[in-house]
Amino acid sequence: MSERFDSSAVGGKSFTAVAINCAAKAGEWIKTKLGNHTSLSTKYSAQDLVTEVDKGAETMIRNLVGTHFPHHSFLGEEGVEPGPEASTKALQSVRDAEYLWIVDPVDGTTNFVHGFPFFSVSIALAYKGEVIVGVVYDPMRDELFVAEKGKGAYVRGRRMAVSGEQTLRESLLATGFPADPNYALPLNMKGLQALVPRVRNIRSGGSAALHLAYVAAGRLTGFWEMGLNAWDLAAGVLLIKESGGTVTDVKGSPYDLGVRHIAVSNGHIHDEFLQVLQQAEAGS
Ligand code: IPD
Ligand code: CA
Ligand code: CA
Q1: pLDDT digit string (tens) for 108-157?
Q2: Ligand 1 and 207: CB distance under 6 A
Q3: Is 75 in the pocket of ligand 1 (CB under 6 A)?
Q4: Ligand 1 touching residue 179 (CB < 6 A)
Q5: Same domain flag for 74 and 180
Q6: Which of 81, 154, 191, 274 could form a disulfide with 86 if both were Cys (CB 3.0 to 4.6 A apart)?
Q7: Exposure of 199 in the CB half-sphere (CA atoms within 13 A)
Q8: Which residues contact 9 (CB under 8 A, 6 or more apart)?
Q9: Number of domains comprising the chain
Q10: What is the CATH number for 89?
């Protein structure tokens, strides 16, 4: 883990140290449960899965955060009713909180259920609506991606920087296949169809938070996906901003906690990327 990362205190207590501790503890526990989960159910759609491990990891993180910061607000995926309307409403009810922890306890539940070793814990802290700490932890590779606003982003103690590709033609992108079959999935497919012939290749690893971390680390040139939630995005977005990348919605508007249709990149390809999505009507 990132021993060399300076998790200095923000506002008197080290928010970053608590975020790292929560992600590491939850991640280690999730790893022990790989292949051992006992309950599996669906939420909003047949593709939207949840296990007792998602719920247990969220409880663990909520309790740890609450011990350190009892007056902070908390938005975790498993504490919210499933579906896009319910998650928009849940965010509205807390987004003006002074300090808000935003948590996806297992990002990549489908992978976790199948034993496909690509999933993560995503933890962000927002201050008055702006993300100031972002941590994404991949327990299978023991990779901890950490960012603090204004202080850079790190993996394994090394400062991250986005990649240098200048055009779509030389880009490696990633996307996901959203669990919402009515709105988000068809739009994502339009984008996929338009982009595949224009880029080097496209990956879909199954964890939006890890894809964002990989853009920050320069392992992917860009990522887009329709219909994500604040808990998928908040931590990874800070990683990318602090690594010199560009983060907007698919129409080019700046990121805020309510953005669901995300497009991120190393910055160099951003205009070309958005142009192809817009031409394909993949963003509305
Ligand atoms: C999902 C993953 C996946 C993305 C889906 C998300 P979950 O999160 O990030 O990569 O394509 O849209 O819902 O349900 O595993 O936390
Ligand atoms: Ca997620
Ligand atoms: Ca999740």
Answers
A1: 999 999 999 999 999 999 999 999 999 999 999 999 999 999 999 999 99
A2: yes
A3: no
A4: yes
A5: no
A6: 81
A7: 26
A8: 15
A9: 2
A10: 3.30.540.10
